[in-house]
Design brief:
The complex is a heterodimer of chains A (368) and B (512).
Chain A: H1 2-42, H2 47-58, H3 62-87, H4 95-112, H5 118-147, H6 151-170, H7 205-222, H8 224-234, H9 236-241, H10 246-273, H11 284-294, H12 299-322, H13 328-367
Chain B: E1 8-17, E2 20-30, E3 35-39, H1 46-53, E4 61-66, E5 69-71, H2 76-81, E6 84-87, H3 99-104, H4 117-131, H5 146-159, E7 164-168, H6 176-191, E8 195-200, H7 203-209, E9 212-217, E10 220-226, H8 232-240, E11 258-268, E12 274-284, E13 287-292, H9 299-306, E14 314-319, E15 322-323, H10 329-334, E16 337-340, H11 344-348, H12 355-359, E17 370-371, E18 374-375, H13 377-390, H14 407-421, E19 425-429, H15 437-452, E20 456-460, H16 464-470, E21 473-478, E22 481-487, H17 493-500, H18 505-511
Classes of the chains: A mainly alpha (368), B alpha/beta (512).
Chain lengths: 368, 512
């Protein structure tokens, strides 16, 4: 009787632990904020004041709140780009380049299709940015499948090629009519994504990003294709034995992943900037990697992490404008948050292993 | 003899692994200037025993004496202090480093002092001259042939003043010329008063090189004979076990139609040599055809070709009168071929996925589980629950991850799935490897049941007793050929054991 009781007790403890485990990312985000708070102390600023300022600025009015979502929009998409490929154990660290190609396609279409009705322009821009990003990335998948090239290096190097192409077009074909700076003209109004909340910068691109996150979830966990992708991610040998053409999956995954990053180019050009400027959003791809890791490569986690990063950006920028804190503190905060989350995943896995070992030992003792 | 017999003495060495006893009270001795062969089937406990002597494992019971003094060997470092070196089956070299860098790795204390490579090279050359092991000290390991890499391993041990060399299946990767060179070295090493422990399951090599042979079976020492007094049939008998009980089965009265037909099949291996050489045989409906043989004689490649993972160079594979030669994996699966792979963790399961998803593994393109590309979750779950019930898979729930299951239940998942999709033919490679006795029994019973229901089963196993227990007909594979195919009732243990070592009647007579 006692034995049974203690076993029940144990199982309830382990269940508690499970819910606790689920909250670990939240704790580690707080830990990351704490660590960067210490950093601020070292720099001679009161972290409490900085954080309360940040919060009050970020949520001061509807404009700022809406801006959090606007800033999160492209981050959701580049985060999905990395996260989706990561589910197949592939590293697409070239979302930046795919994003630029998507942006170039979007801006080119918007500029050249001035007289079409708005919805048609937007649809064409959307599709062309998607195709641009996905074909650009599919090439990575192809060389990986065909020549066993390292996708990590290829995707990184292709980013430089994409930047070069964009810069070339910005001083050539797409150069502004004034001809002063390496940037395009502002795109005609019929190419602008309508705003979601009037008098803010938040546009329908955010809803689009949410839909794409949902789509990513459905592909990965509800379709046969997603099942194959995850199988390739977990165990390539078993996937081969199950009759999956692993090389095809490489190409498909990169195609889809690149499409996500390309669409980020569309939402930024048609929704935010309304033009293309040399070197804009230069770390959006890198932030996507961090966000995907923060969100455990799960679409919902990616959306939440992107919102956190959006809030840090909005609040951070305003704090920077109103105090003398160095701008790099925001980057440091982002970095420390990601670091502590990664550590928490590691610790969580260790704890789970430890616990199952303990459980085995208990069972062993019962058997003897 | 007495004075010689105490260089190393192992007493009562016992080692438990979860679920099994790898070494069961083993006594062993090694003399100066002696080549001792540890002989036994795969999994008999040879490597475990030597890993204990080399300090990689700690024994749960037992004592080790070196020169009559009791010692504790806690790490390979300790072992080297006592002059013991081990040449592993899988080399422990850094492929991108040079020979000399690999050899001195770990012998130098970390310091800022200038590393005098010339001095080390001289020492290596001296060792090379002494034992006839010449090697270019500045060659990159990756660019050396396997035999040469092994030579570097040996020099590495000798550089650390090893006087006792443990060699784990050293010839498994070598060509016959390289093997000859290795044996010459061993003989030379012996005449200099040093000793070698030679782990092998190849009878002919053991007979050629050993002075004394200790036979292991199921973790126990079952024989200890001098080379002069040993005979091939005696050793085979010891290795396989004389008390092998073969259950009676009713021989079929009416031969059933052929299900799998292999004709003149030739397959090239990874090293561009023929691993399956002009092979022909058939498996009938309701028949288990067992392929016996020491591993590495082409069994793996044959199985891969059957399930579409490896291309045949020539010949034909026919499944119930349909040509399936060089078809892709998926269409062979859809033809009704189930495949139980030798390594369930690597090839048979996705450990991070749930049991449900693992049972669905090969149905990912089966239209009855899909609806416009979407997974039919209900059907997948129902299918999984049915299989879990039918095959008594014990798990917390069907959504638990496969890695949480015990080894036996993991194998049940694989077996259940493959039987489910393998409606015509089941290829089972080492289906009971690493399982405890209960699970072994379960898998065997399941295979016999499927046979009764009319499936053709091709059983490939290096465990001789398994082949003898289950098969209706037995083929012995050696170097990519079936040396002989016999009905089980006509099978003689001794003869098959010899065939596994590549010794046919004709050859043996010639020798005698």
């Amino acid at each position: 009787m006692n034995k049974i009781d203690s076993r029940i007790e144990q199982s309830s403890i382990s269940q508690d632990n499970n819910t606790w485990f689920n909250f670990m990312p939240v704790f580690s985000v707080l830990l990351g904020l704490l660590m960067s708070g210490l950093m601020m102390l070292l720099l001679g600023y009161n972290p409490l004041i900085v954080y309360t300022n940040m919060l009050s600025y970020a949520f001061r009015d509807i404009y700022n709140i809406a801006d959090i979502f606007a800033k999160a929009t492209p981050l959701i998409l580049t985060g999905l780009a990395f996260g989706f490929a990561f589910r197949a154990s592939l590293f697409n660290i070239g979302a930046q380049g795919q994003f630029y190609i998507g942006a170039v396609m979007a801006v080119a279409c918007a500029l050249k299709l001035g007289s079409l009705p708005s919805y048609l322009t937007l649809i064409i821009c959307f599709i062309m940015s998607l195709i641009g990003g996905s074909l650009w990335a599919a090439f990575i998948g192809y060389v990986k499948a065909r020549f066993n090239a390292n996708e990590f290096l290829v995707s990184m190097m292709l980013t430089y090629v994409a930047i070069a192409i964009m810069n070339f077009l910005l001083v050539g074909l797409l150069k502004e009519s004034k001809g002063e700076y390496p940037q395009t003209d502002v795109i005609p109004k019929n190419g602008w994504l309508p705003s979601l909340i009037p008098h803010t910068r938040l546009h329908w691109g955010f809803v689009l990003a949410l839909l794409i996150a949902l789509l990513a979830y459905i592909i990965l966990w509800r379709t046969s294709l997603g099942y194959k992708i995850r199988m390739v991610g977990f165990n390539r040998d078993a996937a081969r034995y199950a009759g999956i053409n692993v090389e095809n999956i490489f190409v498909i995954v990169f195609f889809i992943s690149g499409a996500f990053a390309g669409i980020a180019g569309f939402t930024e050009v048609n929704g935010m900037q309304h033009m293309l400027i040399e070197g804009f959003n230069p770390i959006i791809g890198a932030e996507g990697i961090g966000i995907a890791i923060l969100g455990n490569a799960h679409p919902l986690g990616i959306v939440l992490s992107a919102l956190l990063f959006g809030a840090l950006k909005v609040g951070g920028n305003l704090v920077l404008q109103t105090s003398r804190i160095p701008a790099s503190i925001i980057g440091i905060t982002e970095g420390l948050v990601i670091l502590s989350v990664i550590l928490s995943y590691y610790i969580r896995d260790k704890l789970i292993i430890l616990r199952s070992k303990k459980k085995l030992a208990v069972q062993e003792r019962h058997r003897l | 003899m007495d004075a010689k017999c105490n260089l190393i003495t192992l007493k009562n060495i016992t080692k438990f692994f979860p679920g099994t006893i790898a070494n069961d009270h083993i006594d062993m001795e090694l003399a100066n200037g002696e080549v001792l062969a540890l002989f036994g089937e795969n999994g008999a406990g040879k490597t475990t025993l030597m890993s204990i002597l080399y300090g990689l494992y700690q024994p749960d019971e037992g004592e080790i004496f070196i020169k009559r003094e009791q010692v504790k060997i806690r790490s390979p470092h300790d072992a080297m202090e006592y002059g013991i070196g081990m040449i592993h089956q899988h080399f422990t070299l850094v492929p991108v480093h040079t020979v000399v860098e690999n050899i001195i790795l770990g012998t130098e204390k970390a310091s800022l002092k200038y590393l005098n490579i010339e001095e080390k090279v001289k020492k290596i050359e001296k060792i090379g001259n002494k034992y006839g092991l010449e090697v270019d000290p500045f060659a990159i390991i990756r660019q050396l042939p396997v035999g040469m890499q092994q030579r570097v391993e040996i020099i590495k041990a000798l550089y650390r003043d090893a006087r006792i060399l443990i060699m784990d299946e050293p010839t498994s990767v070598l060509t016959s010329q390289e093997t000859e060179k290795l044996f010459n070295f061993i003989r030379d090493f012996k005449t200099k008063g040093h000793s070698v422990i030679f782990i092998s399951h190849k009878l002919n090599e053991v007979m050629e090189i050993a002075d004394r042979i200790t036979v292991l079976r199921d973790g126990k020492v079952v024989g200890n004979v001098f080379r002069q007094e040993a005979s091939e049939s005696q050793l085979t008998h010891l290795m396989i076990g004389r008390d092998l009980i073969i259950p009676k089965i009713n021989d079929r009265v009416h031969p059933k139609p052929e299900m799998l037909k292999i004709e003149n099949l030739t397959i090239m291996g990874d090293r561009k040599s023929k691993v399956i050489d002009d092979l022909s045989f058939t498996v009938r409906e309701g028949e288990i055809f067992g392929i016996a043989g020491v591993s590495g004689n082409g069994q793996e490649e044959l199985a891969q070709a059957l399930c579409g993972l490896r291309k045949a160079k020539s010949g034909q594979i026919t499944l119930s009168n349909k040509d399936i030669t060089n078809k892709d994996v998926l269409s062979i699966i859809h033809q009704g071929v189930g495949y139980i792979p030798a390594d369930r963790h690597k090839e048979g399961l996705v450990l991070d996925m749930s049991i449900e998803e693992n049972l669905f593994l090969k149905n990912h393109s089966n239209p009855s589980f899909l609806h416009y590309g979407f997974l039919n979750q209900n059907k997948i779950q129902k299918n999984a629950r049915n299989l879990m019930r039918d095959f008594e898979i014990k798990a917390a729930s069907s959504t638990s991850r496969a890695m949480t299951l015990s080894g036996g239940n993991q194998q049940k998942v694989v077996v259940a799935r493959e039987i489910n999709i393998g409606t015509k033919l089941l290829v089972a490679v080492q289906p009971t490897r690493g399982l405890d006795l209960g699970a072994v029994d379960y898998v065997h019973k399941t295979l016999l049941k499927e046979k009764k229901e009319g499936k053709a089963i091709l059983l490939i196993s290096t465990e001789f007793s398994e082949i003898m227990t289950l098969s209706d007909r037995i083929g012995v594979m050696y170097r990519g050929k079936l040396l002989k195919i016999v009905q089980r009732k006509d099978a003689k243990v001794d003869e098959i054991g010899l065939l596994m070592a590549g010794i046919t009647e004709g050859k043996k007579n010639k020798k005698n």
